[in-house]
Fold:
Amino acid sequence: MFQDQCAFSIDAATKFHRNLYIYGWFHRPGAPLQAVRLRAKGVLHQFAQINVPHHAVEPALGPGKGFVIQALLAKPDYPEDALIEFQVRGEWVSAPLQELLREREESDPSGRMDKDFQETIRRMPGRPKLLDIGGRDRSAIDRSKQFPNADVTVLDILPGSNVDVVGDAHELSKLFEPETFDAVYSVSVFEHLLMPWKVAVEINKVLKTGGVGLVSTHQTLGMHDEPWDFYRFSAHAWDSLFNSETGFVIENRCQSMASFILPLIYRANKREAEQAAGFESSVVLFRKIGPTALDWNVPLNKVIATMYPSNAAA
Structure:
């Protein structure tokens, strides 16, 4: 954000019970930061540091541009009214924390990849056929509406108001004719697939050569919809599913939305666990380059006796 000749941003704004941790950077040419503080209702105590190392901006802006605010809140609620205030040359410059959060979210690479994929579909001639794997309108979210120029088929393991075909993603070729679709889309589903390598092969069968796909899932996230929560995928994991042997080439990938990973029970070997990060989002964009000779003829019911929970909301 730019304001009054100042540039500043946040990298973390994390609430943990009644504690709020904020980390970011501030720069104004020729005028060092003198102080920083959080102004919000319900702040019982706060501790702030300036001149903190910030390796991402130091090469361009110089050393000591980082700042940290740690605050103890009266209630375990996020302070929606919070302002971050910076003192420079004896005057205070302020910005709403929520605006800084929105600005940071808009720069998220996974969100940009999703929007770029939507634009790719919009540029396709005619009415492309798109398969949304697992696109049931869970939590009242119907992502098929993001593709108004496409004929979208929503497949899900469970029925729903926007579901066109109830079926198993592991058996796509039994549900659709070969090379039916111009594109494939799937959000927050691959972590729930017992055999994602089989689904990758099935996608190859129903996707046209030259067709594109975007899969978004998680690298770090709490367990959910158990017992059907099987995997987490780093950005490096996608090569195992979408490669020349399965008939694909990866065109882009990312992992974003960094998350702290902290043990519930402190252990000495985890004393600096907060220095590492996981990523809530892991996204891959791929294109089919040809058919695959691989197959995995293993029915789900031969491997697992349970079913995806019918009351799953996310």
